[in-house]
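Dear Dr. H.,

I hope your travels went smoothly. While you were away I took the liberty of generating a structure for the chain from your last submission, since the lab meeting agenda had it listed for discussion. I wanted you to have the full record in hand beforehand rather than looking at slides cold. The sequence, exactly as received, is reproduced here:
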Amino acid sequence: MAFGATLTLTVNAVAKVLNRINQDNYGSEYSLETALDSWNLRIRHSTDKVDSEGMVMKRHNFYLEHITFPTSTLPEYKESVTWTMRHGKTDGNTQIGYDAKAVLVALAASSYAMVDDLNNGLN
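The corresponding predicted structure, in token form, is as follows:
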């Protein structure tokens, strides 16, 4: 599956359709700006430098930033969510895919209660 020209995020039951504004060999960037807020999503792929154990890791990042613009009565708000997958440069993609899906399933369990717990500083 390749990412399309638009990417839809459902936020509190409201669809946010982000348009791709950039694509290159390393990833894509999507954006939506309204009078009230902006949404920016960056997907990047890179290769890390050799680590302390002599391994070179491939990195896949998903970064979402939401900015609510200030009004005369409210300040600006900014939130971000990041997701990173890393695996050895010579490793296949199968195991990291299994691992990533397992984390996503755990986060989605119980109507995303774990996400709420993380947001409230619980562990």
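Two observations you may find useful: The first strand starts at residue 6 and ends at 11. DSSP finds one helix and six strands in the chain.

With kind regards,
E. W.
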